[in-house]
Amino acid sequence: MLSRWLTAVVLCLLAATAQADATADHWQYTVRPGDTLWNLCERFAQDPVFCWRQLAANSAVDDPYRMSPGKVILIPLAWLKEQPMPARAERVNGQVWLRVGDNDPEPVENGAEIAFGDTIETGEAGSVVVRFADNSEVAVKPDTVLKVNHYRRFVDVGNEPTELELERGAIRNTVTPRDTDARVFRVYTPGVMTAVRGTEYHVRVTDDAVTLSEVVKGEVEVAAARSATPVPAGYGTLARDGQAPAQPVKLLPAPEVTLKAGGRSLRAEWPPVEGAEAYSVELFDADGVLRQSEQISEPQWRAKPQAGEYQLLVRAIDARGLRGQERLLDATVSKGAWPWDALLFIGGAGLLLAL
Questions:
Q1: How far apart are CA 194 and CA 222, in angstroms?
Q2: Tens of pLDDT, residues 56-68
Q3: Are 257 and 281 in contact (CB under 8 A)?
Q4: pTM of this prediction?
Q5: Which of 15, 38, 163, 265 is least surrounded by CB atoms within 10 angstroms?
């Protein structure tokens, strides 16, 4: 009896492994209304006749002339005219690791390929941007764990899904619009899913597994506990595992920031935003790399970055933890003269040495 059970377990594991390998080596095409097997092969395959014969002989396709919308067809990548483009890591800063399967995490460098099933981890000051074939971007913030389950690999195919699993931390998604009504860019968090066609939005998971979504542009659908809530631009919502998403609320307005650069430093201040409990401040360099990220309680901020061009992003945070509308400002830090206190110190040190 035990041997039969072990045999069944082994067979299940082998089947799961085979399915994972098939998914990695195949393109998953979701059938749309009006699709036929011949049109599909003619559009995407190098050899349409070979493609049609092979897929028609496959038991997964009962009728090559009438396919049910929503059905998934697996097509070997080697048959395709357009070869898939991998997702890549860009704008890597600080501690960023990539974990492949159950292997130990390895440091990530710019240009690194990210495959299905890989997990990205960032340290307290680490960040990275993941770019996909259609130029959609996911900015992974510090102290975040993001698993890449599946992603769009073809520019000319509108309905290939991108599916991410945010285990901890925060991401900002800039999703290229698609020519399909399906919301095929999805982010999964504990018990919650956010889905879009094309937009810009933030998703964050708190330590107590609350999912916060804030929409910058377009519209996001947030689903949990068999209930879906549309969230328009300028609004945000909270969701928990087992509970329907909260009614969307208007995000706090962007702070009216005054930014000054001088004396090798950046200084920003703004009038308090009504309803704000705190503020989020992020500093990006000219290449879009996140150099500094912090949450502060007072409406003022100061930093001493190296000379160069920067962008400062400031948002107000309400009592729910939702971050408000974005205020983005350009800034230049020049090499400039040393501040008077530094010159006084250097001059005093020189005088002591002379004595």
A1: 4
A2: 776 567 777 778 8
A3: no
A4: 0.78
A5: 15
